Amino acid sequence: MAEVRLENVRKEFGGVVAVEDVSLTVADREFLTLVGPSGCGKSTTLRMICGLERMSAGAVFFDDVPVAHLPANKRDVAMVFQSYALYPHKTVAQNLGFALRNLRVPKAEIATRVDEVAASLGIESLLERKPKELSGGQRQRVALGRAVIRDAGAYLLDEPLSNLDAQLRGSMRAELKRLHADLRRTFIYVTHDQVEAMTMSDRIAVMKDGLVQQCASPEEIYARPANLFVASFMGSPPMNFLSGEVQRDGGRLLFRHGEVTVELPEHAGPGVDGLSGRDAVLGIRPEDVRLADQGGIPAQVFVAELLGADVLVTVRLGEELVKVRVPAPYDGRVNEAVSVVLAPDKVHLFDPSDGRAVLAARSASVLERQESL
Amino acid sequence: MTITAVDTGKPRSGTEQRPRRTMGDTARAYLLNAPAMIVIGLLVAYPIGYSFWLSLHRYNLKLPALERFVWFQNYLSLIGDPAFLSSLRVTVAFVVVVLGLTVILGTALALVLNETFLGRGVLRSLVLLPWAMPGVVNGLMWRTIFDAKTGALNGLLLQLGLIDSYQAWLTSPTGAFLITAFAQVWNTLPFTVIILLAGLSTIPSEQYDAAKVDRAGVVQRFTQVTLPWLLHPLLIVLILETMNAFRAFDTIYVLTGGGPGDATNVIAVLNVRTVLTYTDFGLGSAYSWVITIVTLVISIGYISTLYQRGRIEV
Amino acid sequence: MTKKVVLHVLAIGFALYLVVPFYWIVNLSFMHEVDAASVPPHFLPDNPTPANYLGFVNPSTDQALVGSNAVGDTPYALLNSLVVAFSTAVVNLVLGTFAAYSFSRIQFRGSQLLLIVYLLTRMVPGIAIIIPFYLVMRTLDLLDTYGALILSYTTFALPITIWILKDYFRTVPRELEDAARVDRCGWFRMMWTVFLPISAPGLVAAAIFSFMTAWNEFMFALFMTSSISSQTIPVIAANFATDLNTQVTLMAAAGVLAVVPPLVLVLICQRLIVQGMAAGSVKG
User: Fold this and answer.
1) In the predicted model, is pLDDT for residue A78 greater than 60?
2) Domain ABC transporter: where (chain A) (predicted)?
3) Prior bond to A270 cis, omega within 30?
4) How far away is chain B from the Cα of C43, in angstroms, using its nearest Cα?
5) ipTM topping 0.90
6) What is the pLDDT of residues C75-98, one digit of tens each?
């Protein structure tokens, strides 16, 4: 049971900055995910929380107790490794019980706990096997079991699902989320997969270049990305972006991209005003774009991909390709002329000079008919 | 553009508290090396220095009165010393013959063992046999085989009708030289084979598959795939076997004792005799320094070749 | 098809090359001295006898005279060799593990230089250091003890041991160490319970190399020992050789005995030896 707090944590490897400056608080019993592209410093941050990596600067607290000086074996943490890191010379039971042995838990109790954990993960029949006799999914479960058998303050998971095939990954996501609910402990999860981040987390910290770009709930991150990077990284299929210019036209604020003009919604307020007359990037998620027969922005179908319940239609809008998510079935042909309607309330606007969001989607708004000029 | 998520209102506390100073990596590494460094420093580095110091002295245990510092006189006297010059000649010939035979036989044997055939496991085990034999026993063994009166070779050749009468193989200078070289090769071959075999085992089989797909024949597969991978282990073999051959002593000492005449009197044998029999420590140390420098120069040559090819990683 | 034939011919040729010389002394070792001296030689003992081997335990009067009591000394020499070789292997593994770990896991100033210095000490032939070494051992009062031999062989084998181990250690995934730390192991416990068991092939290869170095060495044994309290089997075997009135069958029997312990050892561990060496020492 622990709140984990990072204050201005920094890590350099021989002059190369891996983590620039990260401050975060992970609440007790929270499931927080560090997500970002490879090399963003997420794993290094996790390893510093764990104590496997020394910090170059900053402080880490577990429940307000500073732990920076403690090596990993003195910190109250358990960890699941990307490669599983099962001890090849030990059986599954020995792998599971190893930490407890080191903690000098009585043998009988270790045996009981190993059985319990094995039962809860469905690996009872594998206890006497060696790791090399296990399948990838089974190894993953053992690695997970080796962490959850511990009564640790925080459970750290470093891309635990990345070595599984797609189907198994899907089911393990659900299991992990359920496990967190049952254990009611602090989970800090690292992944490069934004779907994992979205589906499991209480909160997500999106990282890039050694900095936290945004830390908020999945809903918030999805609906109101703080900057261009978060907007482009989170969400699948990704958000559409159009570069253009903001103009003031009487009482209205307009976004112009070549021939395309979008009227910005009323809540666009003062933040956008500052951009008036300057370059801007408009973002909109594929599901917030509609295809109409007429009355929208004219475009041509580029390609249509069936996703199942939905169809992802890519349309050519001027020089840009825009993705539109429409319910199946869709029978538009390649190069067919269509009309694109953007939901005005769902429009994001970014300042290209620093990528910051100046206008976010209003989450609960009705799709309105777009007036195009 | 960064939104650093300090999502608690708590004041920053404890950042002034420095983490306990932990040992630097370099200090830790040298601490781990300390035992090895002490042993090697005391028992090798110091003796090396001391023996160099001795080599600058006239120092004979039997003639303590004559002891004095003579600068490089011991080394200078080597230039005109017929025993030294002849032993240098013998040693160089010995090293070349042994190295050549070892590399050829070792490569052939390693390649054979790398194939699959019935009895491969047996042959693999047999390879280790000479390795388990101490050099002295190796010398004894070949002595009984080449013995002029009771030797197995004489018996075999006579029974096959290849010779008319028993030959005293070890009394002819050329015969004795070749026999010692042959015995030395037999003894050191396993080490070479193990290194080459380990090298061969690291060649990814995909490379052979790719070569087969590219229609490479047996010869091309060997020159294009096997040989490049074998170069590195072969160079290691060259370094180690050169060192071994330069200091070859045990087998020769027992087999011929350096004779007949000076035919097998390699520098290591001469050196031991100078130190042990004549107790001339000054001259003996000079001999050993010559061996050291020659091996060193050759090894540096090999190692720089390795480095140039960019194939070594220390 | 021709390839198969060539392969088998080569294999048989090599097998004979490797085994026939050794077979000859095994053959001799079961003969009576009279048969061994006969012309033509017997390639099979007509009249096999274990007398030569029994002689090591309970030498007859004429056996006892051979090679200044070499026969009686042989069992003790074998025991000395075993103790010295085994201790050398252990000492080497301990010292080598610490050093090799630093080379495989820590990036530190001077690591390359240090590694090369270790190897350079192997370039110096034993004879070059034997006199000062002798004096050091005399100062430490270790002459004619196991200690002198174990220390000398450790210096011989340590550089190679470090080299083999560092390469093997590099193949052990770092995440396993991390996992052990997270599982509440301190460094020593991590090494003992996780790192070293996983490194077993490398450790075995290094141990065998040190064992063989110690078992086979002759020159230092000759200088550092003076009595059967520490003389090793090569020294005693050489005594057979230097005695002009030696019995060739006894000598052969002693030779066979000198080969058996290391041979058994390498045969048991042969798979691990190649595996341990293949980890990197010889990789391009």
Assistant:
1) yes
2) 4-234
3) no
4) 8
5) no
6) 999 999 999 999 999 999 999 999
- In angstroms, rounded to a whole number, what is the distance separating the alpha carbons of residues A302 and A338? 10
C166: Cα separation from own chain's centroid:
21
C268 contacts: CB under 8 Å, gap ≥ 6: none
The rounded distance, in Å, linking the Cα atoms of A285 and A263 is 17
Say whether residue B7 is in contact with chain A using an 8 A CB cutoff: yes
Summarize pLDDT for C146-205 with one digit per residue, the tens.
Answer: 999 999 999 989 998 998 899 889 989 999 999 999 999 999 999 999 999 999 989 998
From the CA of B3, how many Å to the nearest CA of chain A?
5
Give this prediction's pTM.
0.83
Residue A149 sits at the chain C interface (C-beta within 8 Å): no
* Residue C264 burial by Cβ neighbours in a 10 Å radius (0-12, 13-18, 19+): exposed
Task: Answer yes or no: are the C-beta atoms of A237 and A249 closer than 8 Å.
Answer: no
Q: CA B183, B188, B193: angle at the middle one, nearest 5?
A: 130
Task: Band the pLDDT of B294: cuts 50, 70, 90.
Answer: confident
Name which of A23, A61, A354 is nearest B5 (Cβ-Cβ).
A23
Q: Which residues neighbour A348 within 8 Å (Cβ) at sequence distance 6 or greater?
A: A225, A231, A239, A282, A283, A284, A357, A359, A360, A361
CA–CA min distance C195, chain A (Å) = 9
Q: Which of residues 164-203 of A touch C (CB under 8 A)?
A: none
Chain B interface disruption, residue of A11, A17, A25, most B CBs within 10 A = A25
Nearest to A27 by CA among A147, A184, A160, A240: A184
Of A1, A38, A3, the residue nearest A24 (C-alpha): A3
Q: Which of these, B270, B85, B97, lies nearest to B176 by C-alpha position? A: B97
Closest by CA to C277, choosing from B96, B236, A199, is: B236
Close Cβ partners of B59 (under 8 Å, ≥ 6 residues apart): B67, B280, B281, B282
Q: Which residue has the tokens 């010995």?
A: B94
- The distance of Cα C71 from the centroid of its chain, to the nearest Å, equals 22
Residues within 8 A of B (CB atoms), A 15-54 only: 21-25, 54
SS3 content of chain C, % helix, strand, coil (to 5): 75, 0, 25
**SS3 state of residue B58:** strand
Question: Looking at the partner chain, which of B5, B17, B22 has a beta carbon nearest the beta carbon of A212?
Answer: B5
Backbone dihedral region of A241: left (phi > 0), alpha (psi from -120 to 50 degrees) or beta? beta
Q: Which of A79, A86, A190 is the best substitution to test chain C (most C C-beta atoms within 10 A)?
A: A79
Name, in order, each residue with C-beta under 8 angstroms of A5's C-beta and a sequence gap of 6 or more.
Answer: A24, A25, A26, A60, A61, A64, B8, B10
Measured distance CA(A84)–CA(C246) in Å, rounded: 65
C283 pLDDT more than 60:
no
In B, which residues are within 8 Å of A28 by CB distance?
none
Question: Measured between alpha carbons, how far apart are the two ends of chain B, in Å?
Answer: 44
Work out how many CB contacts closer than 8 A connect B with C: 298
SS (H, E, C) chain A: CCCEEEEEEEEEECCEEEEEEEEEEECCCCEEEEECCCCCCHHHHHHHHHCCCCCCEEEEEECCEECCCCCHHHCCEEEECCCCCCCCCCCHHHHHHHHHHHCCCCHHHHHHHHHHHHHHHCCHHHCCCCHHHCCHHHHHHHHHHHHHCCCCCEEEEECCCCCCCHHHHHHHHHHHHHHHHHHCCEEEEEECCHHHHHHHCCEEEEEECCEEEEEECHHHHHHCCCEHHHHHHCCCCCCEEEEEEEEEECCEEEEEECCEEEECCHHHHHHHHCCCCCEEEEEECHHHEEEECCCCEEEEEEEEEECCCEEEEEEEECCEEEEEEEECCCCCCCCCEEEEEECHHHCEEECCCCCEEEECCCCCCCCCCCCCC
